[in-house]
Amino acid sequence: MGEIGGNDYNYAIMQRRTGEGVPSLIPTVVNNIGFTIEELIKLGATTILVPGDVPLGCLPVYLSMFKSSSTDKDYNPKTGCLNWPNELSMYHNELLQKELGRLRELHPHVTIIYADYYNAAMRFYLSPHQFGFTKGSVLRACYERGSPSNFNKSEPCGISPAVCCDNPSSFASWDGLHYTETAYKWIAQG
Q1: Beta strands in the chain (DSSP E)
Q2: pLDDT of residue 167
């Protein structure tokens, strides 16, 4: 099963330019994930891998968008990530795991696996050098444009005049919102 819900949260946050109101979306998104899993089971799925949410507060898009409205206390001193988007991710993951528990009880013949993307990714935000990143590159997008986080929504990566970086494997995010192949490799290895 692919990632579900990320764009719902991204759209809401980007429209409101704040985290207010987004927590109320999380139960609906998680219920829809549960509904999708039920549909897959009806279609005959017997093993389903369900990914949790990533630490949204570490993504360059949010670090760029909310820089001017954030103070030092809004950031995790160990990672440099924004706290409130990460709290949204943790809330999503908490509700998702409860929903998966409910579905496991209803369908004991189905193997439902939770993929903990949050903690798998948090490892490289906490210790970037162990994963081939630097403290700077782990919180910046892999292109040379815009803010200190290298994210500029009016000049997205891959569209001129934005220039993609020479070594994407040294960055966690390639465009500010999506991870690089290297970051996904580390997430997959858990």
Answers
A1: 47-51, 111-115
A2: 80
